[in-house]
Amino acid sequence: MTDPTTDLLPVGLEDRLPAAARALTRARRAALDAMDAHGYDRVIPPLVEFESSMATRMSGVATRRMFRFTDPDSLRTLALRSDITVQVGRIAATSLASAPRPLRLCYAGEVATIASDQLDPARERLQLGAELIGSDSAAAAGEIVNLAIEALAAAGATGISVDFTLPDLVDTLAESVLPLPAERVDDVRRELDAKDAGALKAVGGEAYLPLLYAAGPFEKAVERLQAIDAGGVLASRIDGLREIADRIGASARVTLDPAERHGFQYQSWFGFTLYAEGARGTLGRGGTYRLGGGEPATGFSLYIDPLVDALGPAPAGDLLYLPAGHDLEVAARLRAIGWRTVAALGDGEDAAMLGCTHRLDGSEPRPI
Amino acid sequence: MTDPTTDLLPVGLEDRLPAAARALTRARRAALDAMDAHGYDRVIPPLVEFESSMATRMSGVATRRMFRFTDPDSLRTLALRSDITVQVGRIAATSLASAPRPLRLCYAGEVATIASDQLDPARERLQLGAELIGSDSAAAAGEIVNLAIEALAAAGATGISVDFTLPDLVDTLAESVLPLPAERVDDVRRELDAKDAGALKAVGGEAYLPLLYAAGPFEKAVERLQAIDAGGVLASRIDGLREIADRIGASARVTLDPAERHGFQYQSWFGFTLYAEGARGTLGRGGTYRLGGGEPATGFSLYIDPLVDALGPAPAGDLLYLPAGHDLEVAARLRAIGWRTVAALGDGEDAAMLGCTHRLDGSEPRPI
């Protein structure tokens, strides 16, 4: 039996009804306001673009996962965006190419993919984020990680934790400290990512085994990593990680999984993943990268739908019924100080059934 | 020569850069807040739905103007929404079918069409609106028209005017006062809409000529309409129009063009169009209608992009530069009272060039 109500929408697409929409609207505004307060200017790119510009600027986006169609105007293929980061990168590299650096931009909007992934059936999500264009230094990464935590907390997250990673770790080590034949680098990366010790040995990556045990709470994990790095090729990266972790302080729990690479294929030296207590899966990720033209950048994306689901529906709050013939000026004055009102459309309405908690009596709201 | 920057986006699709995005974000929030204050609960439908459910619930939506694609999951045709009204109607008739009436819902989101229309090259627009489900009375229409004016004013419109129309006027008159053969009704409607007196005569609609001159400022126009309505079949409609106009008072200029029908093919007895000084074209429209299942409803949609364009870029406001080594707590406190800050990433930055108006000196913001 198919529920005729839910069958009205395709799998992975859903309506947010009043209580959920209220919660999502509040969380979205709060996160945008946090980014704005740190000097990040909002940009609003379109829902639809040429597939080619979505695809080429940053290689992280698989266009086969996008909704695509032919543009009757240009006869070129258009795509519904699946990632706003790419669009912000395009804006930074074109319309804002001559804006002073560092350039701070933020965004919020819906993104969609034609197929859901295994972990998450949703095909449409709200994406929020910030990009710091012109720098991928530890200072830039520290600012971005802290902003991501602050935006997530503003959206209602508690018990936030951040997991750091070094996406180019294997490449860096393979060049000197733990030499690997070039043809083995991909295998070793894959098995490290899979955390499969047996397979790691089998592909000749035995020397990389200690990395599997260098994951955990930041201080301990970074010490183990330092112990592995006999030649000191990771010294600047480790200093960077410490600088970022210092800035986070008590606002989030920090862990390090230096060999984690899934989802960070396009990040350079630093990546991070965000979690919060009670919210399913990752709430966002970010890191350092380079734009198409080679310009360094650091940024993050948040997907707050699971957080809003975990927070539960927002309370509706007080609602004031305005009986027929009420004083319009009194009603306007009450709205100005924050009352939500519902005006009578006719006689015989049941104010309580309409969700009203108060009724206007002359110029006084009285509890129902 | 094609400008390589603008060529990056398909015709009719554009980025909102910081100053424009700031203005649009402010206007959108203000309009949503106005609807919320009047007890309209926000719903957030998805960007993409089955084409069939976008098409059938209200016949006003031409699916050939939508971006369409095949869903790999259901193998059915999906469409990118071109109108949120249809989605809100679906929600009212399904998930919220048993919610008490009158049901007040509002929405805001992007809509897209594959082809632009002649008057407006935009293929993506922000649509905001409210629907009052369960009533199409004059009281409902009065509430909706006033809310539309209030939302538009909150978004920054000044010099607002509202043009009323009676979408089913010809059908009503043709039944009794000004009888017409059934096969002539469409012709007469079309020529009245085109305001072509010659053609109107040619199709046998001479008796309808006075309607062409019953357009103008509300009071005079409604008197002329009353004079035409010898049989009084329009009496309840005219009373309704007066009731709605009375409620508007001084908040907008009211005109009446009783035979205007373009864009109101799916409205029942009442329709209205909104304009504001300095903003190109119509900013919105609305009226009474019936949902697929026959339930009466009244609503409006606003398209505020031209208004935001007319208002011009929003001022960036003060921006406080936080030099390297600044006190993080002082900075957080200043943000809490409304300062926007930009933190130094390194030495040698030019705060003024980054748009900063102030620099933090100890715990004091000082003008640069």
From TrEMBL, chains A, B:
<dbReference type="GO" id="GO:0005737">
    <property type="term" value="C:cytoplasm"/>
</dbReference>
<feature type="domain" description="Class II Histidinyl-tRNA synthetase (HisRS)-like catalytic core">
    <location>
        <begin position="12"/>
        <end position="307"/>
    </location>
</feature>
<feature type="binding site">
    <location>
        <position position="127"/>
    </location>
    <ligand>
        <name>L-histidine</name>
    </ligand>
</feature>
<dbReference type="InterPro" id="IPR004516">
    <property type="entry name" value="HisRS/HisZ"/>
</dbReference>
<dbReference type="InterPro" id="IPR041715">
    <property type="entry name" value="HisRS-like_core"/>
</dbReference>
<dbReference type="GO" id="GO:0006427">
    <property type="term" value="P:histidyl-tRNA aminoacylation"/>
</dbReference>
<dbReference type="GO" id="GO:0016757">
    <property type="term" value="F:glycosyltransferase activity"/>
</dbReference>
<feature type="binding site">
    <location>
        <position position="131"/>
    </location>
    <ligand>
        <name>L-histidine</name>
    </ligand>
</feature>
<keyword id="KW-0808">Transferase</keyword>
<dbReference type="InterPro" id="IPR045864">
    <property type="entry name" value="aa-tRNA-synth_II/BPL/LPL"/>
</dbReference>
<dbReference type="Pfam" id="PF13393">
    <property type="entry name" value="tRNA-synt_His"/>
</dbReference>
<keyword id="KW-0328">Glycosyltransferase</keyword>
<feature type="binding site">
    <location>
        <begin position="83"/>
        <end position="85"/>
    </location>
    <ligand>
        <name>L-histidine</name>
    </ligand>
</feature>
<protein>
    <submittedName>
        <fullName>ATP phosphoribosyltransferase regulatory subunit</fullName>
    </submittedName>
</protein>
<dbReference type="GO" id="GO:0004821">
    <property type="term" value="F:histidine-tRNA ligase activity"/>
</dbReference>
